[in-house]
Amino acid sequence: MRVHLVALLCLLPLAACATRRADPPVISAVPPKPGPAAPTEPNRMPSTGPNLTLTGEQPQPLWPGSTAKIHCEGIAIKTLAGAGDAHPGGNGVSMTLVVEGGAAPLRRMVSLRPPGHTSRSHAWFDDTRVTLLDVEDPYERGARTLLRVERVTDRARPGPTTAVRVTRGQGFDLDDDVRVEFLGNSTKEISRGERPPLMVAVRYLVPGEQPDAGEFNVGSEDRPQSWRWRDYRFTITDHAYDEWMQLAIDRLELAATP
Hints:
Blueprint: H1 2-21, E1 52-55, E2 60-61, E3 69-80, E4 90-100, E5 106-112, E6 122-125, E7 128-136, E8 144-156, E9 162-167, E10 171-173, E11 179-186, E12 199-205, E13 212-217, E14 225-229, E15 232-240, E16 244-256
Antiparallel strand pairs: 1-8, 2-3, 3-4, 4-5, 6-7, 7-8, 8-16, 9-16, 10-11, 11-12, 12-13, 14-15, 15-16
């Protein structure tokens, strides 16, 4: 009997240890803060906040000292249906950004939609990119539209230059589903002793926009023959007149306006 009692007393601490190991872990009652939601277009979202705020449809200078003015029209809220966890539903906002100060007003549609739905958060006005960040109080007449305004610089982005060969009447694709068509070459009358400049006619096809055609004077062959469109720089490295071009294409950096 004494032997059994001693054995029982020795087993009690082991049982206690086993009981302690079986206790469930303590879980905090406060859930962790969720991380930031991934943007719909991570390669298009700016790295910092707004530098221009529009109130209602009142025009504002595009940047301090600019003669061009910008305002928004037709702020619209639309409820979008969900399609599973990857495409949740929610409200989307769209509007038209209008820039005046040139020969005719320039109008561009922009939108912000829930993750999983396609947004068109930025618009180009010549060499200026305007990005829609948020709309505060969108149901009010004095809704505040938060924008980020950036201009193209002369600095090329880090990374390799893209090489493209294109023949007249054909095209090639850029990023953002943009297509460029080479329409042909021409020249213009010059004075005696001048080098003839090369004219390049192209057309840009951008989803959701009207085709944008233009002709660029890229100068004579005694200097780099290049032209710019938005944040792209095209440099002719070789060509046969009105037949084909070999191009080196760089993306240029953007700088926020004051």
